[in-house]
Design a protein that fits this description.
Blueprint: H1 2-16, E1 21-22, E2 31-33, E3 36-43, E4 46-53, H2 58-77, E5 85-89, E6 96-100, E7 105-106, H3 118-133, E8 137-138, H4 143-160, H5 169-177, H6 179-182, E9 192-195, E10 204-207, E11 210-214, E12 221-224, E13 240-242, E14 245-247, H7 255-271, H8 277-286, H9 291-302, H10 304-310, E15 330-331
Antiparallel strand pairs: 1-3, 2-3, 3-4, 4-6, 5-6, 7-10, 8-9, 9-12, 10-11, 13-14, 14-15
Helix pairs in contact: 3-7, 4-5, 7-8, 9-10
């Protein structure tokens, strides 16, 4: 760990032109998340977070290069409440990325915390950042081809080769056939847009009831507009995994959760017309009657854990408000 800390220190010194020092004892105990570690340093009053992968391969290098491209795009668009890119070193082993560091703590989101008006203020900020990210676009071609290729490549082909335990070829082919339910032909050639990819409370840093930064772009991706409409993860009740059992019994929505979801959706609807054509199209998709089902299907396309979980979901398969039924936990087969 010391050699990683030494690299982070030299990197921060060179970037800032100052003699930096570590904060929060991260020289010896860096923050960790997923496959990354993060050192926090002070550079003459400016706080810098230096992130690097714990393991290195060509695949991780490609991943880091892509993240740098997205951070540069975010900087060009001047989108608030996201990490501000300070610098990077792609030639280092492992590569390093430096961003501004936001003081605060991870969002705690329960029935009772945070209280109003902070609760709605956080929802407003998350909604605005989600819509702001749609300004980062690429012309990625047909949405239909994109999603069909993705399911074939990451699901059908891998399942056929026996690489997806708990998921059969039939499961993957069912996912593929359901494209017709969710593909919107009128938006097939719409731009591909940037999504955060993991709007989990642990990635939302708050202080005194305000969002300071939405961090961790490791799951960020550019996807077709019509396949970008995920709910934030704290507005959807995912099943708990206990050993090999997915427990859906807690997945109903309370009155508080319904109110949170309604406020978030109304905020999206109100903000979108003032922002962009793509924001308006996004809002229209989010207000479709099948948005709950769309969210689960999109999640199954991008996350293997959700695809496995949906096999055990009480009827109807892809859910809605009747998820509140008192179903027994189902075992993964």
């Amino acid at each position: 760990m010391d050699q990683f800390a030494d690299r982070a220190l030299v990197f921060a010194n060179n970037l800032s032109g100052h003699a930096c020092h570590f904060l929060f004892d991260t020289r010896h105990r860096p923050y960790s998340g997923g496959e990354c570690i993060v050192f926090v340093l002070d550079a003459n009053g400016q706080r810098i977070g230096v992130r690097m992968e714990q393991t290195f391969s060509q695949a991780t290098r490609v991943k880091v290069e892509r993240e740098v491209q997205l951070l540069e795009a975010i900087r060009r668009e001047q989108i608030d409440h996201l990490p501000s890119l300070i610098g990077y070193d792609l030639d280092s082993t492992p590569p390093m990325i430096a961003t501004g560091w936001a003081d605060g703590h991870k969002l705690e989101w329960t029935e009772f915390t945070p209280a109003q008006p902070f609760r709605n203020n956080i929802l407003k900020t998350v909604a605005k950042v989600t819509l702001d990210l749609l300004r980062i676009q690429e012309s990625g071609g047909s949405a239909l081809k994109w999603v069909a290729d993705k399911i074939i490549r990451t699901r059908i082909t891998r399942s056929t080769s026996g690489f997806l335990p708990g998921i059969s070829v039939d499961d993957c082919e069912t996912l593929y056939r359901e494209i017709s339910k969710y593909h919107l032909s009128e938006l097939d050639d719409a731009p591909h847009v940037l999504i955060h990819g993991d709007l989990h409370p642990s990635n939302i840093i708050v202080e005194e009831g305000e969002v300071k930064c939405i961090v961790d772009l490791g799951s960020a991706a550019v996807v077709p507009l019509q396949f970008s409409t995920y709910y934030p993860r704290f507005l959807i009740n995912e099943p708990r995994l206990d050993g090999h059992i997915f427990d859906w019994s807690h997945c109903g929505y309370s009155d508080v959760q319904k109110a949170d979801r309604a406020f978030y959706m109304q905020t999206i609807t109100n903000m979108a017309p003032q922002m962009s054509k793509q924001a308006q199209q996004y809002a229209e998709i989010m207000t479709h009657d099948n948005q709950e089902d769309r969210h689960w299907w999109l999640s199954a396309v991008s996350r293997l854990d959700i695809m496995r979980a949906l096999k055990t979901k009480p009827s109807p398969l892809h859910g809605g408000e009747d998820c509140s039924l008192e179903g027994k936990p189902e075992k993964v087969h």
